[in-house]
């Protein structure tokens, strides 16, 4: 999701902003909910949960857990912290779901909870990013080994540079480039204006450029 | 030459949503093109660096179980308490009441050191009556009181109230006022 292409970005480049967290995630589910809940949209699930159906929240978790985990991983850079944080996001969500008014999508609301949890974690605890095997996420077919290694090293350098960005720029970059949210959705998540989101994004790229050159 | 692209416009350029007139500037501005090429280059590096290792398929079931366990102690949400649905109307009512009270306070005239309201009403009535009285009535009163001293008149409660005198003086023409001053002076001189 979001990291599949490394082709040059040209003017007019458009990311595949087709991610919407409303569809059921294909995964071997935990407890099979009723068919009615399994196919219900997010707002219906929230209504069902608020009406007292705990299994509706199970569907919400199953549907959004991968995106929430990936968001957390991109902030902390290791599986253990990411899974703990993702769990914390859903624990916070179940406590705060009554405050969800449906003005944004449930996915955007969960991102907001997730970003707050991640930024709080980063502010209170230094997390160690785990190295990602360079061959693990690069298509090596037809590519020589040296190129694979170089790409891996470059990606590691970029991740380290992203870790050094100011929190809001980092959140904006992660949400835009990796989570593939629109500027409007990011503004909703971060509680800022679209203009501020764009400015943050531009400054994040500018800072990354300087960090990678130094 | 138009101004250089702002930071937001560079992002629009990356997204391919830059306005036409700004695209024209971009085409003719070497500095903006260089800046845009720089952020495009960074984007090329950033995108593949966001790969997240996919956990084991077993992890997701385990994760859901962890969340279920962690939230099991939380009570299921029931219907919202009655006061939660009433606080907005109550707050609105309180705000309206406060505004009305404020308006009433600010519209009340400042308190003056004046006679009680009933006294003012009586005095005003007396002044009106005085102004309406005919010359003959005044002549009658003047004749009836001419034999009385000031002390006797005060004892008989025939002396006018202060506000009535003030009101009567205010109604005099300049010539009448001059005549009144003249009479008072003569009276004072005779008392000496």
Summarize the structure.
Chain A has helices at 35-38, 42-50, 54-76, 79-96, 106-124, 145-163, 167-178, 183-190, 194-213. Chain A is mainly alpha-helical. In chain B, helix 6 (117-132) packs across helix 9 (162-170).
Overall description:
- The complex is a heterodimer of chains A (214) and B (192).
- Chain A is 62% helix and 0% strand.
- In chain A, helix 2 (42-50) crosses helix 3 (54-76), helix 3 crosses helix 5 and helix 4 packs across helix 5 (106-124).
- Chain A is built from 9 helices and no strands.
- Chain A starts with 34 loop residues before the first helix and ends with a helix.
- The longest helix of chain A is centred in the first third of the chain and has 23 residues, at 54-76.
- With 214 residues, chain A is mainly α.
- With 192 residues, chain B is mainly α.
- Chain B is 71% helix and 0% strand.
- In chain B, helix 6 packs across helix 9 (162-170).
- Classes of the chains: A mainly alpha (214), B mainly alpha (192).
- The interface between A and B is large, with 67 and 44 residues.
Summarize this structure as a short list of keywords or feature phrases:
heterodimer; A: 214 residues; mainly alpha; 9 helices; B: 192 residues
- What is the number of helices of chain B? 10
- Most residues in contact, chain pair and counts: A-B, 67 and 44 residues
Largest sheet of chain B: none
The average pLDDT score of chain B comes to 78
Order of helices and strands of chain A: HHHHHHHHH
Name the assembly state: heterodimer
Mean pLDDT of chain A: 81
Rg of chain A: 18 Å
Sequence-ordered SSE layout with sheet pairings:
The complex is a heterodimer of chains A (214) and B (192).
Chain A: H1 35-38, H2 42-50, H3 54-76, H4 79-96, H5 106-124, H6 145-163, H7 167-178, H8 183-190, H9 194-213
Helix pairs in contact in A: 2-3, 3-4, 3-5, 4-5, 5-8, 6-9, 7-9, 8-9
Chain B: H1 7-15, H2 20-28, H3 30-46, H4 57-71, H5 82-107, H6 117-132, H7 135-145, H8 150-155, H9 162-170, H10 174-191
Helix pairs in contact in B: 6-9
């Amino acid at each position: 999701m979001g990291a599949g292409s490394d082709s040059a970005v040209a003017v007019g480049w458009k990311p595949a902003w087709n991610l919407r967290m409303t569809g059921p995630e294909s995964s071997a589910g935990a407890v099979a909910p009723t068919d009615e809940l399994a196919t219900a949209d997010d707002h219906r699930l929230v209504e069902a949960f608020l009406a007292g159906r705990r299994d509706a929240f199970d569907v919400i978790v199953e549907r959004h857990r991968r995106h929430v985990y990936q968001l957390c991983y991109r902030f902390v850079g290791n599986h253990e912290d990411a899974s703990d944080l993702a769990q914390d996001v859903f624990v916070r969500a179940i406590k705060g779901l009554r405050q969800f008014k449906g003005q944004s999508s449930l996915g955007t609301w969960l991102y907001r909870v997730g970003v707050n949890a991640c930024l709080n974690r980063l502010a209170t605890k230094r997390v160690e990013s785990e190295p990602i095997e360079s061959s693990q996420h690069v298509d090596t077919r037809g590519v020589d080994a040296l190129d694979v290694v170089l790409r891996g090293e470059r990606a590691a350098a970029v991740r380290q540079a992203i870790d050094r960005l100011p929190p809001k720029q980092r959140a904006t970059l992660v949400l835009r480039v990796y989570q593939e949210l629109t500027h409007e959705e990011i503004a909703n998540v971060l509680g800022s204006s679209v203009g501020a989101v764009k400015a943050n994004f531009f400054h994040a790229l500018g800072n990354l450029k300087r960090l990678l050159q130094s | 030459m138009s101004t250089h692209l702002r930071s937001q416009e560079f992002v629009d350029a990356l997204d391919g949503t830059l306005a036409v007139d700004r695209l024209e500037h971009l085409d003719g501005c070497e500095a903006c093109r260089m800046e845009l090429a720089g952020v495009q280059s960074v984007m090329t590096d950033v995108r593949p660096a966001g790969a997240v290792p996919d956990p084991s398929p077993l992890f997701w079931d385990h994760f859901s179980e962890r969340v279920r366990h962690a939230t099991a102690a939380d009570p299921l949400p029931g219907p919202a308490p009655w006061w939660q649905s009433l606080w907005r109307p109550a707050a609105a009512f309180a705000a309206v009441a406060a505004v009305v009270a404020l308006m009433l306070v600010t519209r009340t005239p400042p308190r003056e050191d004046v006679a009680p309201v009933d006294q003012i009403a009586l005095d005003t009535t007396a002044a009106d009556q005085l102004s309406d009285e005919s010359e003959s009535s005044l002549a009658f009163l003047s004749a009836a009181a001419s034999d009385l001293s000031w002390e006797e008149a005060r004892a008989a409660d025939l002396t006018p109230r202060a506000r009535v005198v003030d009101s009567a003086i205010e109604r005099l023409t300049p010539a009448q006022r001059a005549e009144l001053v003249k009479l008072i002076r003569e009276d004072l001189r005779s008392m000496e």
